[in-house]
Design brief:
Largest sheet: none
Number of helices: 4
Number of strands: 0
Distance between the termini: 93 Å
Oligomer: single chain
Strand content: under 5%
Structural class: mainly alpha
Helix content: over 70%
Shape: rod-shaped
């Protein structure tokens, strides 16, 4: 026990203050790293909840295209004519 008192008395004040300031900087860095980890964790959880919401309600977030009924009947005929014209190249069928 006497040895510890002698060692503590022999440490200069400047060395003691330098050590304390270095420990304080280390603690500050650890708190900043902890705060960043907490923020990233919260953002990750928010992103997960948004993702789950999109899966649970796909109709709510689906994009809907407006199609007129009058154009549907005309487009079907035009597509058939277009494909029939492509059959002239001698490949022998659709999709080849």
């Amino acid at each position: 026990m006497d040895d510890k008192k002698i060692m503590n008395e022999n440490v200069p004040y400047v060395v003691h203050e330098a050590t304390l300031s270095r420990l304080e900087r280390g603690n500050r860095r650890m708190l900043i790293a902890l705060a960043i980890c907490v923020v990233v964790m919260l953002l990750n959880n928010i992103a997960w909840f948004v993702h789950e919401e999109h899966i649970a309600n796909p109709d709510k977030y689906a994009k809907q295209e407006k199609v007129k009924d009058d154009d549907d009947s005309q487009n079907e005929d035009n597509y058939d004519d277009y494909y029939n014209e492509d059959d002239r190249d001698g490949r022998g069928g659709r999709g080849h």
